[in-house]
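Repro:
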Amino acid sequence: MSYLHWWRRLLSFAPSPEGQHDARDTVAIGTPAPTPGVGTLDGLRSVFWQGFCHLFPPHAQAAQMPNGSIVVSWPLTGEPDARRPYAAPVVLRFEEALLEAMSRADPPQRLRIAQQHEGTLREGLRGYDPFAQFPNARIVTIG
C-alpha cells in the first residue's frame, strides 16, 4: 500500500455518536515515548510527539525548532505519487498556557493532556496532502 493510500485511510475517520474517535486511533497511557527520528525534543514536546506520532507514518521524523515548535516530515522515496523526496512539513505550534499546564502536570497527566488535543491536530491535518505539487507547510496551533 502506498503512503498516499495509507495517509488518506488514516485521516478518513468517522467520529462515533459521542464524538469520540475509534479506539484504534488512540494511544495507551503507558506506551513508552518513541524516539524521534531527527533532532531532540524536550520533555514536554516529546510527550506531545508520543501522543500524536500515530497520526503520521511510522518513519516520520520530528524535530524541535528554536522557537519550540515541532516540525514533522518523512521521506517519500519509492512512492509513485511523490514529486519531492520528503512530505510537505507539518509544523506544530503550542500555546504558552498549554505548555505551562503541561509543566505543572505529572507524567501520566501530561500524556492525557496531549491526547486531549489529538482532535485539534486531526482537524488541522484535514485536507493536508503530503504529495502536494507545491508543498506548503501545514501549521497547526495546539492549545
